[in-house]
Give the backbone structure.
Amino acid sequence: MDASPILHRLASAWRGRVGTASRQALLALLLLALFAGAHLARLGTPAARGAAAGALVLVLLAMVLRAIRWRRDWLDLERTLTRVVTPSHPELGERALRAARLMTRTRARPDLGSEELARLHFERTLARIPLDAVTDSAEGRARRYRLVTLGLVLSALTALVLGPLSVLEGVNVLLAWRGRAPVPMPWLDAVELTAQPPSYLRSSDRRLLPGLLSRLPEGTLLTVRGRPLFEGRALVLSDGRGEVPFTSDGAGGVVARWTLQESTELFVAARFGSVLILEGEVLPFVAEPDGSPSVTVEDAPRTVELADVGRVEIRYEAEDDHGLRQVDLVLRAGDREERRVLLRLDGTSRNERGGHALSPRDEFLRRMFLPVVVTVEARDDDPINGPKWGSSEPITLIPSAVGKPESDRYRALAAARDSLVDYANWRVHEKAAVPAEKRVKEDKLRLERALGEMRSAVDEVYAGAGVPNGLRSFLLGQMRVLERPLRAGESAERRTDDVLLGVDAALRGLGTRDARGVSKRLADVAEEAASGARQARETEKRSVGMARLDSAIEALDAGGVHLSHLGLLGADLGGVLAADLGRVRRLRDADDLFRAELAARHLAQRLARPNPSFGSAAQGGVEAGAPGMNATSGSASEAAQRFDQLAGELEELAESHASEIERVQGALSDAERAVELGPIEEEAKRRAQALREALADLPQSGDEPGSARASAALAREHTGSMAQSLERLRLDEAVQSGKDALSALEEAERRAKAPKSPADWLDGQSLADAKQKIREQQAWAEKQLERLRAEAERRASDALRQSGQRESELARRAGNLASRGKSGETALPADALEALERAEQLMRDASRALAEGKGERALELQRQAQRLLEQSDRGRTTDDETARADRKDGEGARELRTGGEVPDKKANESAEAFRRRVLRGLSERKDDKLAPAVRRYAEGLLQ
Amino acid sequence: MKRRSVLLLIASLLVIAMTAPNLGATVSNQAIADAITELDVQRARTLLDKADPDSPSLAFERARLAVYLGDCDSAQAIASAPTLRATPEGSSLLELAKRCAGATAGSVVVDDVKAGLWIRLQDEADRALVPFIVDVSVRARERIGRDLGVDLPRPLRIDLVRDLFSLSQVSGLPLEAAETTGTVAVARWGRITMVSPRATALGYPWEDTLAHEITHLMLSRATRDRAPLWLQEGVAKREESRWREPRPFDAALDHSEVARAALLSGRSVGVDKIGPSIAMLPTPEAASIAFSEVTSFMNYWIEQNGNAALALLLRDLKGLASEDPSAAMRSVTGYDLPAWIARWQVFLREREPNPESGEGSVQASRDLARRIRLGDLAYERGHAALAALHHDLAAKEMPQEPSLRYRAARARLALGDEAAAQAALGEPKDVRSLHGGWFALHGRGLRTEDPVAAQRAFGLGVSVDPLAEDVACQGQARRPVPPGTAPRSAPVPPDERWRALCESVRNPLAN
């Protein structure tokens, strides 16, 4: 604008007053919008935040518009005149406007007149406008602006005063981006942070330092407590994705709990609608997941040919970061799986070691024809993510062909039988050709050869399969018959023939039984072939199915050969198998899998029913021809049946004798209970108290195991038990506890004399004093016990006498069995016979003791006799490796199963582990009924 | 009135038109069923081709026809249709077809068109028996057909199965029943299902059994399967040995004597009380008595009435509307069944006892059993002298038992003493029954002097125990040698089919 100085002066007067006032008003409005908007925005809802932001924007826009307008007006001559002059002097203002327009026109078109004259006219017009009037007008308008400003400022101050923190929060909320306010604010004071690990870890709570990185198990419950700095805030604990509200703890504070599922950073925040205002400090955590257990198996991975080993020992160690629940032995072959629980734990143990021995005769392994992958798998106790299994490296077992162990065993025994045939032939046909002086020596040599072959055959293990005990006992018994000197009038040839026929009959029985067993196992293989064919035909896994079919065919082929070796039935069933397998193979080769499956299923059904092809008949039938034309069947030897009869009687005798022992025990127990112990009750209590006083100087348990102090502590425990037993008048238990206590004290003394650590430091005198006191009380208890037993035996004398008569009868039966077991068809092996004869003698002694009323002594003798009876009872020729134990289980389970494998004494580690297991078992079993049997069993083992 | 008559006529025509096809279908169904029962599978096929293929009632006949043809897979597929499966007979047929399909899948089929025989071998190793089976089947079919006036359609279907289990699976005969009675063959479903001689340790008279079953099929065809069981079994038993030359010991078992003894002792089963099958009688002894009773009864009946009466009886049975055979018997002879049974029982009671007849079953004494087993053990071990010692003693104890003489003879042969072997063997008059091994060694002894008699002896051996090595190889079995001695070679018979049989026995795995 080419403004004149006059106009400039007028405009300045106007702008100086109105401009400032209006600007202040707008600033006040802005302030009000900010404060009031903050209150609104604090609601946190999108609408509230939008409204607040909108108000602020409007005010700012107004300020900008005003600035633009003012700048435009002051640059334009006519607008300036209109704003400054016209309000106070409208007429002069019009004139001035006309003069200004004239001036503008003459500048653009000089032909319309002189520009100077026009300017002069304009200046003069302006000069006529009084400055005061413009000033007054401006002053009036400025005043109005100031009043508005005042009102706005007051309103803004009111909003601020009502809640200055709210204004800050509101502004913070207003500026939030993606739900989070930009400026952190403190919300809690005196923050406490505790961590409670998952209950299954059985760990105690921990206090944590807020702000420091903490490593905690997954599933830990975090508790954040604090005192809120401001009331009325919706405080939350959040990780940015989820949040839990703080609740009142009832003591002026707030508390929030958070379960740690993964590594995260937690923070305290206040929630305003959809916006969080965070505290400045974060709580970082690393969640440590519960790892899977790790299992290591010694020497795994490895591959074992089952035919080459007698047993597969699996030593494992399982570890878990928190605790183990279960350890399983897992056997997998093809799509079959079997899990066996080795250990069940309470979840507290983090490390477990153990061992397991698998026999090649194991039922699962015997059924398998595919490689069996054995792993040890351990399960932890993670309830958060579910239990997890850890698995060891595998041991791959290559099973023998189905039926190979049985076939090898049968053939070895048949070869031994054939050596007896050779011997019989020598005696009849070749002996005469030997010079007379050499005959005896040659005969002995040939007999030894035959016996040696039989003995090595029965002692051999055939891919894990031994000769069953009953059969072994029979065969060895028969060999003993051959060895013994001839009786008067006895024919050596006849005796040899008898033995040969007995062995042959037993062998044929074994062949038939084994053929049945192998056939049934091969039925499973045929079933696998059928399943493979179906899988190949019906599913997309054709190649897998074909592989299953092919491997099953291969296994059937090999198994069929072995089956054919197992006597007449084996040959018959082997022939059936070969015929049907031929059909399966032809169909498989023709890719006719449907029919291959049908044929394989037919074979499976047939093998599962291992009867002779012609049922029970030896020769066909009544349909045509004359039935049974050439039947010259008949039993050539009944030695095996008679031996089995003897074995059955022996078993029955052992059972009857066990019952007799129980009767004697019962009679003595009843009599002991009937003895009046009232007179010694007070004395016993006094002595129990004396014992307890004697304990005072002995250390409490908790010391290093194996130290003198630990032994002394053990003695203290035993002495406590002794005192308790005395109080309850259980004199036998008191005596036993006393013995245990003395033994522990002696151990403590021994260690204390040669201390190796501070835990071995003990006062020898105090130990000696304790021993002395215990001995005194024990002597008294023994004396009373002796008196009690004597009295009990006196009272039970009638019952004992009757038992004595029964024991005598049982001894007579044992004697009869022993004499029958000495020779002939029912000959027992030497050691079994010796055991039976010793048992008979002990039973006679026991009978005498019973007749004399010496119950305790008789009982001891009876137990010894019982152990020998059980040693002599080897089972029947028809028993397989498990039949005897199973039969006993089925007949009332009077005895413990003795079919488990006992490690060889030479296998130090496993033998020791086994011993420990047995002893632990004994310590846990308190069943009265089983106790004697368990004890006898243990005694037998220890021998 | 006139309008009413017209309407009535129209209605009648409509009814006739609507029912006519059903009547036709009923006739057609029966015709198909009869054709199948009479083994006329060609006619059954033709009728089925003309019938409605979607008819559910025909599905059963189609499945039945498939079973008759030995096509158990097709039978299974047809009988699997839900509508058929839902019926008791359909469900039963499906079960049979399933089991049969499993037992026969992949079997070897020998289709001898020239001989009119279709033989299915479950065990391929039995292939060497096929020429012998063909020979017996053709001869028996011709001779028995002539006797009964029946011509069996070709081919005659024979299933040779490996064991009783498969016999049961293929024929539907309950396994327990077959095992209890020792059933070796069944003529059912238009086929003969027979157990291979290799299923039994000492074989069985399979030739006569085959003839016996062929007779059953002929009777089924002749009577449209309406012949009662006593007639079936009686005639089959009569015919089982009439197809061939008489053989030694044919008369060893006097059926009338067995029936007489049973009648007098109260063990009689009763001709008309056999039940659904002799194979389903409770014991082998009952089955044996039942066989003897029906054989004796039918022999008596034919003796009294002649062969022509039998042919007439069969024709009458075929035409009977009811299942009761008494009516047919009365129409042929004037007496009904109870009357004939009563007359037969009178005949039995009045009959002189035959002390020489027996069931042939011998239970060895303990000492004899010892000798036999000791000898067997010695022989198998190659100690032929010891074996001969034991078996000689055994044969002395029971000289008529051919198996003992055979054992003694083979031990001599192992020692290389041919003459001693023949001496131990004796003559046919010295033994009491047919034994495969005995006749094989007997034939061996006759080879040079009387080749025809030798061949007859070999044939007798094959008729009972074709898979014994001595039988299959015409007395030239390999003999065990003492331990440490090289095995001796053994010749094979020159005749092709005998050579094949011998080689299949010596090398069973070659198949």
Remarks:
- Residues 23-104 of chain B form one domain.
- The CA atoms of residues 6 and 12 of chain B lie 10 Å apart.
- The longest helix of chain B spans residues 2-37.
- The mean pLDDT of chain B is 88.
